[in-house]
């Protein structure tokens, strides 16, 4: 790593650049005009040699090796968890400044931008980007708790196929086409037919729920009121949806005003179309159907682009490290 170059125009690598999250990250780096020097797009041997576009230029995807990180200042890992675990098992070292978006469960500093203490950031270290679902739940509860005090909360997460990566999206698409053509469906990524269906997916969903709780603990500490979480797999390609019940000492009017004035949220009380489809491309959390249940809890509906909100948090980590002159290694 070159500390001076890190401040001005760092060389960046994206490991897993052909993944859904890798593509989203690459597009956001370009659209935000993040000042960078060289961009290395890295993949496993299976995808090496693919041509990808960045800033109007064609880049050739390279194979991941420890040598490819020479002269790189920031590395984003957006590959599948099993690829990350294989990299660890190989004994290869991580670059000085690593931001991990893989949800492989590796130890590091879990950082939620705007919520975590910025003093945790350094010019070298291993930073874990929270799960997209952790980001949404964490931001909603943190903002409410800091103003009104949250006593308890319960969340049902409707998880899209894209949380399983390219394989999940491809299988949902293939199942949909097969069913419309009266053919048998393949079930490799999901345990059963997902198209036109809703699945409990107990194994995968339990791991997701546990990961979210662990990350909330890492971000807020053990004393923060943790929500009861239940995740289910739905036949949606992209974007997360949440049905939430929050026991908080505030009126509906106070909650509405709070969400409306915070840049992390978009309050859409009157909209009929606050849905996974409507929020694609947004890095904000969209809130709707905020209501009093009459049973000591308020209900709300929240949706967010899972890929966008995860990539945005990772880029904000990098930007903060680049732009904060007082940070140390």
Average pLDDT, to the nearest integer? 92
Radius of gyration: 20 Å
CATH class of the largest domain: Alpha Beta
- Biggest sheet strand line-up: 5-2-1-6-7-9-8
Poorly predicted sequence stretches spanning 5 or more consecutive residues: none
| Overall form | globular
The total of beta strands comes to 15
Q: How many domains in all? A: 2
What is the CATH H-level superfamily of the largest domain? Answer: Dihydrodipicolinate Reductase, domain 2
Instruction: Calculate the terminal CA-CA distance, rounded to whole Å.
Output: 11 Å
Number of helices: 8
The profile of the biggest β sheet is: 7 strands, parallel
Order of helices and strands: HEHEEEEEHEEEHEHHEEHEEEH
* Strand content range: 15-25%
Specify the CATH architecture of the largest domain: 2-Layer Sandwich
Predict the CATH topology of the largest domain: Dihydrodipicolinate Reductase, domain 2
Write the topology of this structure.
Elements: H1 3-8, E1 12-15, H2 20-31, E2 39-43, E3 51-54, E4 57-60, E5 62-63, E6 74-77, H3 81-89, E7 97-100, E8 109-110, E9 125-128, H4 132-147, E10 150-159, H5 165-180, H6 202-220, E11 228-233, E12 240-248, H7 252-260, E13 265-267, E14 285-292, E15 298-304, H8 306-323
Parallel strand pairs: 1-2, 1-6, 2-5, 6-7, 7-9, 8-9, 10-11, 13-14
Antiparallel strand pairs: 3-4, 10-12, 12-15, 14-15
Helix pairs in contact: 2-8, 4-8
């Amino acid at each position: 790593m070159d500390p001076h170059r890190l401040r001005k125009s760092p060389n960046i690598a994206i490991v897993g650049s052909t993944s859904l999250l890798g593509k989203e990250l690459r597009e956001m780096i370009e659209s935000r005009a993040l000042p960078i020097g060289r961009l290395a797009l890295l993949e496993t041997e299976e995808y090496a040699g693919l041509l990808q576009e960045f800033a109007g230029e064609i880049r050739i995807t390279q194979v991941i090796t420890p040598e490819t990180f020479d002269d790189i200042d920031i590395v984003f890992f957006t590959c599948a968890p099993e690829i990350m675990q294989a990299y660890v098992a190989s004994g290869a070292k991580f670059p000085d400044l690593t931001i991990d978006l893989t949800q492989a469960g590796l130890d590091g500093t879990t950082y939620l931008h705007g919520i975590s203490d910025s003093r945790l950031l350094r010019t070298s270290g291993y930073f874990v980007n929270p799960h997209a679902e952790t980001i949404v739940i964490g931001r909603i509860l943190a903002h409410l708790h800091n103003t009104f005090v949250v006593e308890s909360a319960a969340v049902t997460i409707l998880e899209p196929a894209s949380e399983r990566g390219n394989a999940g999206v491809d299988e949902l698409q293939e199942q949909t086409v097969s069913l419309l053509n009266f053919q048998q469906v393949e079930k490799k990524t999901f345990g059963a037919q997902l198209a036109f269906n809703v699945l409990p997916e107990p194994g995968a969903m339990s791991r997701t729920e546990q990961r979210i709780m662990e990350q909330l603990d890492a971000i807020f500490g053990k004393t923060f009121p943790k929500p009861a979480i239940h995740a289910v797999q739905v036949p949606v390609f992209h974007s997360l949806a949440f049905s939430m019940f929050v026991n908080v000492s505030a009126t509906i009017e106070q909650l509405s005003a709070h969400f409306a004035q915070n840049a992390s949220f978009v309050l859409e009380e009157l909209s009929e179309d606050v849905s996974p489809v409507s929020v694609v491309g947004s890095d904000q959390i969209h809130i709707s159907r905020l209501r009093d249940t009459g049973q000591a809890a308020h209900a709300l509906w929240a949706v967010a682009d899972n890929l966008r909100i995860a990539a945005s948090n990772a880029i904000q980590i990098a930007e903060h490290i680049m732009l904060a002159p007082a940070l140390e290694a």
